[in-house]
Write a structure and sequence with these properties.
With 544 residues, the protein is of the alpha/beta class. It is built from 13 helices and 26 strands. The model has no long low-confidence stretch (mean pLDDT 94). The structure holds flavin-adenine dinucleotide. It comes from Muricomes intestini.
């Protein structure tokens, strides 16, 4: 297999043209090119108005040695190793492993454990995706919030109603990232996510992928229990001798569900997501080691997608180019950083609340990304110094305080404000040329009043600085909505290098435990957690 890169072709080109380009590059006839697979496709818009797709491709040719000579170092020999799960350990596992949460972390942990013969039980407080979709749409239509089935909770987790961006900054030599994307493709995602530089699925396709993964896990011996919220855990003290010293350590012996049922467990993966506040409270009360952590808060900002597309691709209109995206950062005078986050080209702002009388927003899109607006979070980092509270849950209480203010300011609806009025700290009375694209009821208000003064000032300064990168970003009629508070987990549930808490058998995992940010990294953390369980325990036993 040979790898070649920087094959540039204009938007709208055909696959025929790509094949021709490969043959020309390798200086071989069509019949000498046996096969090829695209590894990466990115957009090169540095020399506008000339825009190209740039390809990296792995090729199989009849005579590799001759091609290597002819291309003089431009083609490189590569070998691709598929992802491999570890070899099972020796400790007998007496009970089926429990996974709490069916977001990307829980789903992929469950997938690998089921594939490796460990028959996991996946507990999910919310509904299966099909029913969940109806609950969420009802909430957006009527404002009636289902506390266990909403944008944050239910099968598929927080990622189910999302833009479905699948890129991650997590580097991984073991092939876990490719394994995640490949598994998505095997369960209904388009194959281009395997090579697009910025792969994305969209809410509509993601729902189906999640449902198909559930069926695979069930077929491999896993079990899903919906409407099953873990409300407590059972712990036991066990005597342990360490370096000759006697002592007690705690271990998990079971989980309690909201109906009162108890399930005995030796292994419990906490893949809770960042919004399981009641569960964080319970774990904190049970003294599961955890700490508060920094996260970021801010607003969603909407602009016309055509403005963003023009700024990124130039004035020439090309067919075959996706809706343009952006990623911006700004260094503020007070030392804080402002940045855009979870940008949704052609997307919608969504009411993403999960608690009564508290309101949070986020962004989503459909696979086509063909909505008229682009939206993104603009956020600034907040640290324990901002929370002015103590204890592991102080960041969570700060999130709650902002969400209560957002609910009050919008009188239960998503509060929106033009950037001009945000700067003047006054409620918006009239909108300009940007028509909000929001799932859920919304109302003009003073979004700035949600924030402590320093954060409001920081957001204003950040947006003004971003105008230097995208003309129109700080336009007077850009629509801001709030509050963007669920950017990452406000807590970290501590774990060792073996992925286990000091409370034996508890495996904190994914975004809620503070080890991931985004769909793919949460899925990869789910895989790593499953690997840790496989490495420790043998699966060949009579599991009950
Ligand atoms: P989650 O996905 O939050 O899953 C946790 C699950 O645990 C939930 O299903 C919950 O119901 C369940 N649960 C919680 N407590 C309990 C309990 N006590 N008992 C039983 N079940 C419980 N990321 C991206 O990479 N790209 C995007 O485009 C993107 N867009 C987003 C858009 C929106 C609207 C939102 C809300 C998030 C978006 N994200 C996106 C973030 C992404 O969804 C998360 O990073 C990811 O879902 C985290 O995965 P997780 O499995 O760790 O947690």
């Amino acid at each position: 297999m040979l790898r070649i890169s920087q094959l540039n072709l204009p938007p709208g080109h055909s696959m025929e043209e790509l094949t021709d380009k490969i043959c020309k590059f390798l200086r071989v006839r069509r019949t000498d090119l046996l096969d090829y697979e695209i590894q990466k496709k990115s957009i090169d818009a540095r020399k506008k108005p000339h825009i190209f797709f740039s390809y990296t491709v792995d090729v199989k040719v009849k005579d590799e040695r001759q091609v290597l000579q002819k291309t003089r170092g431009k083609a490189k020999k590569v070998s691709r190793l598929p992802y491999q799960a570890p070899t099972p350990g020796a400790v007998p596992l007496m009970r089926r492993p429990i996974i709490v949460g069916s977001g990307p972390a829980g789903l992929f942990c469950g997938y690998l454990l089921a594939k490796s013969g460990y028959s996991p039980i996946i507990l999910e407080r919310g509904n299966p995706v099909e029913e969940r979709l109806a609950d969420v749409e009802e909430f957006w239509r009527s404002g009636h919030l289902n506390l266990s089935s909403n944008v944050q909770f239910g099968e598929g987790g927080a990622g189910a109603f999302s833009d479905g961006k699948l890129n991650t900054l997590v580097k991984d030599a073991k092939g876990r990232n490719h394994f995640v994307l490949q598994t998505f493709v095997e369960h209904g995602a388009p194959a281009d996510i395997l090579y697009e530089q910025k792969p994305h699925i969209g809410t509509d396709i993601l729902m189906n992928v999640v449902k198909n993964m559930r069926q695979s896990i069930q077929n491999m011996g896993g079990e899903f229990r919906f409407h099953s919220q873990m409300t407590d855990i059972r712990l036991e003290n066990i005597a342990q001798i360490d370096d000759g010293n006697k002592g007690n350590v705690r271990k998990i012996s079971g989980v309690v569900l909201d109906g009162g049922e108890e399930i005995a467990a030796n292994v419990c993966v906490l893949a809770l997501g960042h919004s399981a506040r009641d569960t964080f409270q319970m774990l904190c009360a049970r003294q599961i080691p955890m700490e508060t952590k920094s996260f970021a808060v801010g607003v969603r900002i909407e602009h016309p997608q055509s403005m963003i597309t023009q700024s990124q691709y130039g004035k020439t209109i090309y067919s075959g180019l996706p809706a343009a995206s952006y990623k911006l950062t700004a260094k503020l005078k007070n030392g804080r950083g402002a940045y855009t986050f979870c940008m949704c080209p052609g997307g919608y702002v969504v009411n993403a609340s999960s608690e009564n009388k508290r309101l949070a927003v986020n962004g989503m899109s459909y696979h086509k990304r063909d909505g008229i607006n682009a939206n993104s979070a603009v956020i600034v980092t907040v640290t324990p110094e901002d929370y002015k509270g103590t204890g592991p849950l102080s960041g969570m209480e700060f999130q709650r305080m902002l969400e209560e203010r957002a609910y009050t300011v919008g009188q239960g609806k998503v509060p929106i404000q033009c950037f001009k009025d945000f700067r003047e700290n006054q409620p918006t009375k009239e909108l300009g040329g940007v028509t909000p694209q929001i799932k859920g009821d919304f109302t003009p208000a003073n979004v700035r009043s949600i924030f402590p003064k320093e954060l409001g000032d920081s957001l204003e300064e950040g947006i003004l600085l971003m105008e230097h990168k995208i003309h129109g970003f700080a336009r007077a009629d850009a629509v801001l909505s709030g509050v963007e508070s669920r950017t990452s987990s406000p807590v970290r549930i501590l774990r060792s290098a073996d992925f286990e808490s000091t409370v034996s058998g508890i495996y904190p995992c994914g975004e809620g435990a503070g080890y991931a940010g985004g769909i793919t990294s949460a899925a990869m953390d789910g895989i790593k957690t499953a690997e840790a369980i496989i490495r420790k325990y043998s699966q060949k036993l009579n599991i009950t």
